[in-house]
Amino acid sequence: MSPQYLLDTNIISHIMQGRDNDLLNRLTKVPVGQVAMSSVTLAELEYGLHRRGQPTRLRNALTQVLLRIDVLPWDEQAAVRYGELCNSLESQGINLRDFDMMIAAHAASVKSTLVSRDKAFSQIPTDCLSLEIW
To answer: Global pTM?
Structure first.
């Protein structure tokens, strides 16, 4: 069964910082197993940690997140959806960063709602992507 929500990188970053009580409270109301992240998101987070010299506090925070949130592999279905979505959006003059497009395609391929605070995703038509801004 697909998770109800796929969390974008900026949402996971806020969770790791632990200072957004509204976000943390909202997450506690979602049933276990209904929240996940893309392996693309994990790649972005790992890159950020390495750029910062692997600060212990952030590494520990990511470890705690990974204990509670599944990481979905970016698979063939996501890749096919990525090609379709990129082509569709480019024909409409919409261009997002590659990782953002990959995460959006991943959410669409598993029929999950993408949770983000990145307003760029709001450019994607609702018939292509279910989006919630938390």
So the answer is: 0.94
